[in-house]
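Field reference: sequence -> structure
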Amino acid sequence: MKKLYVPLILIVILFNSCSIKFNGASIPAEMKTVNIIFFENNAPLVVPNMSSKFTENLRNRIRNQTSLNMTTNEAHAIFSGTITNYDIRPTTMQDANTRGVTAGGTNRMSISVSVKYTNNLNQKMSFEENFERHLDFPTAGQSFQSQEQRLIDQVLDLLTEDIFNRAFANWN
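Structure field:
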């Protein structure tokens, strides 16, 4: 029985000395600071709080998934950009003659963001790209106004995930 404890103790010690990151981020050790400049909303259809929500979502994702310090001064990494589009369009129409299908169709909410990421430690990792995400939702049942903020939050979460992965996970 004593022989069983020795390998078990070695395995526990081995795994305690390992560090695994499940968020996929590969941030260089010398990168310590990040500046996320407020993203203005330049979309033709403006939702008043979308800029602040998006900017704060990106800040929170970086705060929660990295050890980078937020700063408003010069930083090792800088995010800037604008919300360029927000729209809602029908994606499917319901045929009144179709049997067994509930009335109503589907709409698609889309949000686009133009992002400039500057990596001051390695310019090759910098980028300037447009990101777009959408979410389909039914037209029947609830009013759009009752769903809009929840849908915006979901799309902004998808966008910040894409931007975070592009900057820090090298998932091009």
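Note: Confidence is low (pLDDT under 50) at residues 10-23, 98-102.
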